[in-house]
């Protein structure tokens, strides 16, 4: 332990210990308390830049605090080790993705920091966080004429042969596929087919289903829906309406997959089995998603299974607001 660490003010030392031990939303709150203090010691600033975003489901909630309290721009002006560079990449990706808290627009050094990080990346080997940051920065920079230099740096980095080979290989790994999806698309690589291959081994993976369902290609969406109809345990998922917000137990991933697919259901790509199952899901959000799909679709296209499920839901629905939605769709059906 350095002498400076031993001289650290007790309140900051305690807050830093709390932040290092926390994860998830507890870590978000702990970092908020820690960064409320001015002039943090160097050890704390180093930790914020390298590890502040680790273990946080949405780094967007802490990225601005880590960048400003950690003095990211100043630190990038010195010797930059791999841990600092990777931490900067995570912070920048979170800042440009934005959210309900401070983002890149609230971080005045943002464009300068982005350019500096991209210049450093040009001399380093690719990895997941670096390629993801380059892709996210490209999407952000392309929306602003004044950031054309940043966009050009991103384009050069993503066009680098070594980077393309790295991303193409890593798409075959489930843990790397989703983080590298945007980088693969920017490089012209087919992330969707790589995801489809992964889905065969993980048929109830809700994150994979969600990403694959974003495709605009009808053939691919039809393939995904048919796969879900074959592989999801539809009878078990249609256990009946309950006032439940989150899925639990062994059906958790299958329930989340059904919810994701039904939220994106369109009249032009209709799945009678999935919509009927969703109407009788114990999850309130899934039933609401199914009713929204009905509202956007002509009752003549619903199908007998959906009509039967709707009548049962309308009779058993425990949530007043959803019961009103069901009644409105039932009225449409009976008036058709």
Description:
With 336 residues, this protein is an all-alpha fold. Helix content is 65%, strand content 0%. The protein has 22 helices and no strands. The model has no long low-confidence stretch (mean pLDDT 94).
> What is the total number of structural domains?
2
Number of strands: 0
Task: Please bin the fraction of helical residues.
Answer: 55-70%
Secondary structure category = mainly alpha
Spatial extent as radius of gyration? 24 Å
Topology order in helix (H) and strand (E) letters: HHHHHHHHHHHHHHHHHHHHHH
Task: Report the total helices.
Answer: 22
What is the global morphology? globular
User: What number is the mean pLDDT?
Assistant: 94
Poorly predicted spans: none
This entry's quaternary arrangement is: single chain
The proportion of strand residues reads under 5%
What kind of sheet is the major sheet?
Answer: none
The end-to-end distance, rounded to whole angstroms, is 76 Å
Task: Please give a quick description of this structure.
This protein is mainly alpha-helical and about 325 residues long. The chain has helices at about 5, 10-20, 25-35, 40-50, 65-70, 70-75, 80-95, 110-120, 130-140, 150-160, 160-170, 175, 180-185, 190-200, 205-210, 220-230, 235, 250-265, 270-280, 285-295, 305-315, 320-335. The protein folds into 2 domains: about 1-160; about 230-335.
